[in-house]
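Q: Entry one of two.
A:
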Amino acid sequence: MGGGMGDDGEGRIGRFLLQGDLRLLVLSLIEQEPRHGYELIKHVEEMTQGFYAPSPGVIYPTLSYLEEAGYIQAESDGNKKRYAITDEGRAYLGENRDAAEGILERLAHVAERLRERRERKEAHERGGRPELPRGVEAAMLNLREVAARVLATDEKRSGEVIRLLLQAADDLDRDAGASPEA
């Protein structure tokens, strides 16, 4: 049923979308605005944060089915076709609104889970450290280099360096808990 979710071991999204689901999804997207087949592919890919892009071999037969059923109408747009929803398509989608919204929610949920998993994996690869703004990262790198330089010349100062670093952490933590003054 279309493209996979990537090499993260989550498997193919096809098991989340049955043919009828894809029809409702496509019809819902066309209801929002007329679209080309390629635009539908790209929009679904964006909705799922790149985890799923239906193949042309899935989208175009779905569009043909919806057109034959009278739910959409193709309009010439240069050498492409732009699909718009018909009154029959709006009525059909209205009758199936709960199912269509469920499909959108399911895709959003899958995309969110996979996004969280990717973020956890990236954090793990960074050594579990939280991401910091560039300026803070630069200052931390500078602090590390200065501490290393001080300890390289005088190892006996390690206690002093540790005390200063712990004090800085305590000060930041205390400041984070204080309410800003107006």
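Q: Entry two of two.
A:
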Amino acid sequence: MQEAHLLIVDDEIAILHMLETILKRESFKYIDTASTAEDALALSKTKRYDLILLDVMLPDRSGFEICPLIRETTDAPIFFLTARSTDFDKLSGFALGGDDYITKPFNPLEVVARIKARLRRKPVNIAHASETIYQYGNIYVNTFSGEVKINGRSVDLPAQVYQLLLFFCKHPNQLFSKSQLYEQVWGEEFLGEDNTVMVHIRKLREKIEENPSKPQYIVTVRGLGYKFVPDCDKHEHS
């Protein structure tokens, strides 16, 4: 974890210094900071990051605006930092490719805990990972390369959407509640009403379903949760 490369983007220099100081105390060695959207974009294009903290309110362009641009070059988890706390803002952040949403003012130790929890879910040594392929109808997932194909065409999925799809591929025809999905895929305790799962289910449907409003693969079981229903047998090999 200490080898992870982090990027912190915030126009409040005091917040940048505080987070950088606390993270270094927690043995994070590689931390870059940026105070503008343009600097953040430049860094994200030239360096590989394992996680990005991205302020929404930046002086030149908003974090919401540049998030999709950052997503073009990295699948690193993106945590939004913002004083906005409405459900609409949170949904907007997730829809644009964010993986978490931290509201200001925040407890810096909580931010560190979230970063550590998220990084623990990343593969440590992909070189020793075995290749597993899941094939469900028009859905193809290669766990070694991370490639996803729909109807034979490669599609790009945000990191957390990919993890959600992979979890469903591993557990076909099983019903999971929102809390179970959150705890299994996000690796954190579900603390009640949270739109994270719902938003990511919607984003996944938009990628894999022929008609997202009438899903055939990711079906809703009213009042209970969600289930992945393949329309053909799975072929898996290692």
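A: Comment on entry two: Confidence is low (pLDDT under 50) at residues 123-130, 232-238. The chain has two domains: 5-120, 127-228.
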